[in-house]
Design goal:
This protein is of the alpha/beta class. Helices cover about 45% and strands about 15% of the residues. A 7-stranded parallel β-sheet has the order 4-3-2-1-5-6-7, sandwiched between helices. Strand 5, helix 5 and strand 6 form a beta-alpha-beta unit. Helix 1 runs parallel beside helix 2 and helix 1 crosses helix 8. The longest helix has 15 residues.
């Protein structure tokens, strides 16, 4: 079973369209046979976990003392497996190294950090090629802004990052990635270099 790491805002709540989309994505990922991994707390992480668990999927949360202690939050109730780290950087490394693909929902600085770290590791070849989908207009606008500068080589983002505006489109991009790359199987995962 392939595992998809989902990044996104902790600030959205039920009733927010981003929450609804994340719940639909979790459900769709589980129905497509993926395990869903997230940071394990609230917001997008809760929504994607809820959608996946209600669809009978495997749901992995990766938590850290640096968030649990500082913000007094607990892992969400939808997780079937929890990995816990003392440090935020180790948590992110787990989510990047132990996933077969990535999906970034709208979010703030934390989500931007997760996108940048994952994208750069893919770009420099520190990770095997894996699908990476960013979801929503905000990330498309950011990529366009970067592309308009002299600091992002023309078109390089298209080799590493795809974008989607609908849950079904994001899942289709993930489903079709391995066929498009003419890969019958995933390359071996990096690591594990960390233990939970």
């Amino acid at each position: 079973m392939k595992t998809i790491s989902v990044f996104g805002s902790s600030q959205v709540r039920p009733g927010d369209p981003v929450y609804a989309d994340a719940e639909a994505l979790g459900r769709g990922l589980a129905q497509a046979g993926y395990a869903v991994m997230s940071g394990g707390y609230r917001g997008v992480m809760e929504a994607v976990s809820k959608g996946a668990r209600e669809a009978g999927g495997s749901v992995i949360g990766v938590t850290t003392d640096q968030i649990s202690s500082r913000f007094a939050v607990q892992p969400n109730a939808w997780l079937s497996e929890i990995h816990h780290y003392a440090l935020l950087r180790d948590r992110l490394l787990h989510m990047v190294e132990r996933a077969d693909g990535y999906l970034a929902m709208p979010g703030g600085v934390g989500t931007l950090h997760e996108i940048a770290e994952t994208w750069e590791l893919l770009r420099i070849g520190a990770l095997p090629r894996r699908p990476f989908v960013v979801y929503g207009e905000m990330w498309k606008m950011l990529i366009r802004e970067l592309q308009a500068t002299r600091f992002l080589a023309g078109g390089c983002e298209e080799r590493y990052v795809a974008w989607a505006l609908q849950p079904a489109d994001a899942i289709d991009l993930l489903d079709n990635w391995w066929q498009r790359m003419n890969l019958d199987a995933l390359p071996p995962k990096v690591g594990p270099s960390l233990s939970p």
